[in-house]
Amino acid sequence: MGAGFGRMVHVMAEVLIAGGAGFIGANLARRLVAAGHSVTVLDNFWSGRRANMAGMDVRLIEGDVREPIAGRYDWVFNLACPASPPRYQRDPVFTLTTSIDGMRQVLALARRCGARVVHASTSEIYGDPLMHPQTETYWGHVNPLGPRSCYDEGKRVAETLAMEARRAWGVDVRVARIFNTYGPFMDPADGRVVSNFIMQALHGEALTLYGEGRQTRGFQFVDDLLAGFMAYVAKPRAEVDAFFAAKGMALPVLNLGNPEEITVRELADEVLRLVPSGGGIVSRPLPKDDPHRRRPDIAWARDCLGWEPRVHLREGLSRTVAYFREGPAAGYMNA
Amino acid sequence: MGAGFGRMVHVMAEVLIAGGAGFIGANLARRLVAAGHSVTVLDNFWSGRRANMAGMDVRLIEGDVREPIAGRYDWVFNLACPASPPRYQRDPVFTLTTSIDGMRQVLALARRCGARVVHASTSEIYGDPLMHPQTETYWGHVNPLGPRSCYDEGKRVAETLAMEARRAWGVDVRVARIFNTYGPFMDPADGRVVSNFIMQALHGEALTLYGEGRQTRGFQFVDDLLAGFMAYVAKPRAEVDAFFAAKGMALPVLNLGNPEEITVRELADEVLRLVPSGGGIVSRPLPKDDPHRRRPDIAWARDCLGWEPRVHLREGLSRTVAYFREGPAAGYMNA
What we know:
The structure is a homodimer of 335-residue chains. In chain A, helix 4 (92-113) packs parallel to helix 5 (149-169), helix 6 runs parallel beside helix 9 (264-274) and helix 6 (193-202) packs across helix 11. With 335 residues, chain A is of the alpha/beta class. The model of chain A is unreliable at 328-335 (pLDDT under 50). Helices cover 39% and strands 16% of the residues of chain A. Chain A is globular, with a radius of gyration of 19 Å. In chain A, the strands form 4 sheets. A 7-stranded parallel sheet of chain A has the order 3-2-1-4-5-6-11, with helices on both faces. Chain A binds chain B through residues 92-93, 96, 100, 125, 127, 130, 139-146, 149-150, 153-154, 156-157, 159-161, 163-165, 167-168, 249-251, 253, and chain B through 92-93, 96, 100, 125, 127, 130, 139-146, 149-150, 153-154, 156-157, 159-161, 163-165, 167-168, 249-251, 253.
């Protein structure tokens, strides 16, 4: 846990989580409630799931982040946007407008009531990077006219909107660029590798490896991300502003991800160790649109928040498997 | 003039020009009227100028492209966005929303009435390019969080919106990425090098060179751009679609610019040849945010439209000087 977190527990904040019924939002809501905060979830259940809300002691607003948001909050987390490629490609115009208009409505709310905003951006804004690892100053290498553009370009312009709202209206908005994250409350059907492997193993099916699984990836356990969020949102504005002014940045932006890389083959082996499956592993050819390799430089998050990932893959996977076995219906609580 | 232009003159089209009171729009409106089309100009006069409308035989709608657009049109040219850095940086949120919501309203109009759209994008979407010259397949190198981002990122996501509207609703939208252009109806105060030099010379002042003027630039005379526009808008959809499908592009995109480069020093000398000024030339240090060098690859525009720039710098400058001497009040008509 970051240095800022210790201060945070002494205040009770009124918090809005836009997209709070999604994977990260459902974890964050539980963490905030456990820390004694008053939490409101705004979700339209486009990709968020009602099952994720089970047993949550929060207010629920069923609505669209693209519409004006009522109320007064101390903190707003903007997590509202489908994030898995098959999901966000199902309705690219929805994805684009959720990124753009959602950001605008969150910024308008913050401008009106003085809320502090933590905006969930993404490593996807770096596209297919030509620099490794990626620092926050890297401009990225993004295709404006490809199958991923509705997500990538929408998320990029949301950051630009945040910067301009900060400049024009003094909105206290802080951007987290989230890298590959896994954990409880993931949607088993959203098509990403960790949930795919666990579901295949639990069903006794073979784990599908593409291109022999030699590609490397970093996997951040969701509790590590939450520790970063909590330290980020709790840090006083003057300190955040001073940190980023010294870096020459017009907007606070931090990478939050796990820089430790393993091969997809190693991930499959770890899953099979936890859930022995008769199916073993099958290999398929690498698809053309295989996700690009990205690895965060987390020096700034370390310096600014005293944060770094702590949860080892085996522990994170074991807790994720437990969730997938028992499911939200079993009243699973993320400890 | 492109091959397509010959076909176009036989039909009378109902045309909307969003941003029709700006530099390029005022030229385009005159060209379309001269070709027998029925022209409506939509402008909010934020950077467009009332003086540019003088003597124009068009319908004028004073309004904002970010609001729903009534009416039925055959062709819509979307030129609505401030384009010179000091202008677009004056209100970055306005610039961003004009790019984004303007594009959305134009696409919604086209979806409703079946109009063909030519959207004015920009070489700025290539940012500070790492590839020279720039082809339409180049992804660009753009800072999402800099002083130019409100323009660059807004214009990039407008292209993404256009691509998705074409995919989802079949909107016939064609993107032109416009490079550095000059000519009559430029705003003398908009801060770009051609108008700066001409105004300085006409006032008998010294021409201001930055960094000794050794940087190179391409300058496209506006009539060349218009010829590209006319060929582009007149080309049958099936031919455009076939051309870009063969290129693997999800959206028709053409660079329109002059690939011939001269130094800024040579430009100054040309201006002084036309308008001898006692002031001569003064040198100043190169500012930090000097515009990046960009040069269009126009092979696609040549192949698709039979188009290339024809007007020599001396001729273009001489016609621009004539406009700046006489002004729109003198009833200048772009021949």
